[in-house]
Structure formats: C-alpha cells, structure tokens
Here is the input.
Amino acid sequence: MSYARPEYLVDTEWVAQNVNNPNVRIIESDEDPLLYAIGHIPNAAQVDWFTTLQHPLRRDFVTREQFEAVASSLGVTNDTTVVFYGDKSNWFACYALWLFQYYGHQNVKIMNGGRAKWEQEKRPLVKEVPAFPPTAYKAKEADKSIRAFRDDVFRALEAKKPLVDVRSPKEYSGELTHMPNYPQEGATRGGHIPGAVSIPWAQAVNEADSTFKTAEELKALYESKNIKADDEIIAYCRIGERSSLTWFVLKYLLGYPMVKNYDGSWTEWGNLVDAPIEK
Amino acid sequence: MTLPKKLQEIVDDFASMSREEKLEMLIAYAESFPDLPERFQEERANMEPVPECMTPVFIIAEKVNNGIQFHLDIPKQSPTVRGLAAILTNGLNGCSLEEIISMPADFYMPMNLQEAVSQQRINGFIGALAHMKQSAVKAG
Here is the structure.
C-alpha cells in the first residue's frame, strides 16, 4: 500500500537536487522562527506563521490580497511548486501548506522529515537570505471546504460527524488547559468537544526522524478509532497547527476527501460561552 | 525601579534597537548560549521528560561567593527561547539574592520585545524569570 497522493510528499534528497530549480520554491515554516536565521536549506525562503500568515489585527489569516503580496515577496508564481519544511515534525510546514491550499495554490509539497531529518543527514544549512523578483500572483477565493469554523463544529456535533482531537492525552482529558510548557496559550475550560476521539498527532509520525508513518500504519491508526475515508471529518488541536499535520495526513497520505482543519481549536472552543464540553 | 546594572544596560540597549537589530541580538545570544556545565548533567538527566518534546527548559542556580549564578539548558532547536533566556542570565548572573527576588516582573516593558517576538513568547519569558527566582531562593 502506498500513500494515496504521494505527489504531495518529497524526500530530503529530492529537495537537495532541486534547491536551484527555478520552478521550485523551498519554504521554511517553523514553530521557532529564529531557526531560519541560524541556518536554513540553501536558497530557501521563510514564512512565519504569526508575522507572515496571520492578519495583523483580527484573529484570522491574511486576506486574499495580503496573501498575494506574501506569495509575490517569496517569488512564487501560480505555477511554482512550493515545498514546505520546518521544525517540530513539520507542524507549521503543514500549517503553511494548508493556508496556501486555502487560497488555491495547487502545487504544494511537504519535505518528509522536515528540518530534523535534513540536520540528521548533515546536509548543508546556510545563513544567506535569498531575494526573489516579485511576481503577479493571483490567489483564488478562499477554499472553505478545508477550514472549519465554530458553526461548522456545532453542525458536526448535531449531525454526530467525527471530530478528531489531536492534542496530547492530558489536554484531551482536561487535566491541562494548555499544551505542556505552553501555559500562555490556554483556555478557561479544560476537556474536549463532546464525542471527539483522541488521536494525538504524534502517532502519525516516526519519532526517530520525524517522517510520516507508512500508509498501512496510518490506515490502521485512524480506522481503529473509526475515522473512515467516506466521513466528513474535522480535526482540531489548540490553535490549529498540530491539527494541520493530521489534516495533511488524512487528506493526502490517506486520501480522505472531506477533511477540515478547525484552526479556532481549543483556544476558541475552551473559551466559548455556552459551548458544550466533555471531560 | 532600580535594576541590577548589567540588566539595566541590556534593557536600555534593546529599548534603542530596531526590530531587525533586536532579532539579530536574540540570534547572537542564542548562538553563544553556553552549554550546561558537566557537573549538572546528572541532575539534568533526572528531570521529568516533557510530553510532546516541547522546549524543555532546565534551570539551576548556585551561590558563588556572594552572588547567584544561573545555569540553563535549552535545546539548540529553540533559538528564540535561548535568546530570551540569555537576557536574564547575562543580566542577572553574579547578582545578590536580594537583587534578584526584588526584580519587578514588568522590567522588560521598555525593551519593546513584542516588536520582535510574539506575546506568547514574552509570557514564557516572564515564567522563566519566576522560575529563576525560585531556584535562586533555593540556592541562596
């Protein structure tokens, strides 16, 4: 069994061969944005999930026009193959890929294993920041079929559609109202959305080198929790970064057609007045 | 408020820097962040593992002559955390216990760190200071 959409994944060797390919843009997207400055893949650009991809005022992503400016500044045209990689098993690489897809960029890939694997293989990291000529990028209308808002979650609850909670077990149980060591990104209530199944994101990744588990392993993992291909599925975590990894796995590695990432996640639901919670 | 002299200098430096200069300073701090001395490795190894491998910050304080010396262990993969922690260790190492525990938690405000790092990081930084004060009390 192979991944459903293997074209969405490349390995480190492919990236090494394509760093200077003019039709390819390698983009680093990290949890810790200073990592890029300390050393990155030659000719790679950077996006920061907070300063580049978030709206400066509202809790939302950049607008369609702002996204066009971001893509242009990265030298990305509508035909560029964009390859994302990052720290923490590619959480924010998947998050950036998800946002590029939200604005209609089709040709996107994840570098399997991310920064960790590139470093393990002792491949070169450089400090030179490349500059790219601006482009006339045209974004599409936002694709809401991959993004869940709170009202979608209420509808899923009513219709008893599957919700996947990808946080750590203690966040799911409500013992913690935040991720271990991230006390500042908390919620006033602990627990999970009623009926959500707990499948921590890390179960989809090999600990040794941050690569994704095999198609067989992934299929067994999600099917054992009754998450099936023909379901409408919503994945959530705390702010939508870990669940974008799970979204990527379900959508492209397993090929489930109807998967949404709820980026409001627990920092919205756990603070939302009148929202039902289970512990 | 009166801050320890070294820390006051760092606060003043940051206050006068542009966003890019602040980021460059944090990167320089992160890259020169010292390794944990060998003699603390055993204690470090006995630390509880942190679920999900989030930036585990190990903090220990020891009394040397009449001052407190802090030793921190923060992974190289977390340069922002190392850079911010270095503000505290560079500014406070060698200070007396009294100087450290009387430090106001909002001392960093004039530095305008939010230009360079997210509010969540700044909250973590304040948390680290509280943790360092506790370690200093134990050591002092």
Q: What stands out?
A: Residues 91-102 of chain A form the longest helix (12 residues).
